[in-house]
Structure formats: structure tokens, C-alpha cells
Task: inverse folding
């Protein structure tokens, strides 16, 4: 997963719910050096009996914001959406020569 174009990650999930598997896996895919590189990571753990769905809010370097409901998505779908926009930003960066 391409994470270098992410600036802000906000994650809300119930760690005990099986529907939050995508949220837990997404957190594990973020590299340990992400905070040092300037990414703001905010995770909110919901109580065990919470019925609130898992959600992920992302902000990219170009200002685009993406809100995803993780309880309805598999991790492959989440990665596909994030990588699609990240590849677009990488292509723009390459064309501009930055």
C-alpha cells in the first residue's frame, strides 16, 4: 500500500468486533516511521458493546478527503481505493519532476 501521500488518518473501530478486521489490518499496514514523516494518525477505539460501524477518514497531500465505512469493505477494497489515488498523485509528481 502506498502511504507516502497520506497526511491524515482517522480511524474509529471496535477492536472486539469481527467486522472491524479491515480497520485492524489497515492500521498494521501503516509503516512505523509514518508519524516521523509527518502523517497524523488518530485512532479511536469504541467500547466492546458498541454498534457503531468502523470508519476510516483519510486526507491526501493534494487535499482530497476520503471517508470509508470499513465494516462493509474488505481490506483489499480499502487498499485498492487508497492506492488508486496515491498512484495518481505519484504520476503527477513524476510528470512535474518533484
Result:
Amino acid at each position: 500500500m502506498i502511504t507516502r501521500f497520506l497526511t491524515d488518518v482517522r480511524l474509529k473501530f471496535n477492536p472486539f468486533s469481527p467486522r472491524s478486521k479491515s480497520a485492524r489490518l489497515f492500521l498494521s499496514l501503516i509503516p512505523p516511521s509514518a508519524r516521523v514523516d509527518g502523517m497524523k494518525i488518530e485512532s479511536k477505539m469504541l467500547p466492546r458493546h458498541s454498534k457503531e460501524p468502523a470508519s476510516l477518514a483519510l486526507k491526501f497531500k493534494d487535499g482530497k478527503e476520503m471517508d470509508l465505512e470499513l465494516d462493509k469493505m474488505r481490506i483489499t477494497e480499502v487498499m485498492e481505493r487508497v492506492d488508486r489515488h496515491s498512484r495518481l498523485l505519484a504520476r503527477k509528481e513524476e510528470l512535474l519532476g518533484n
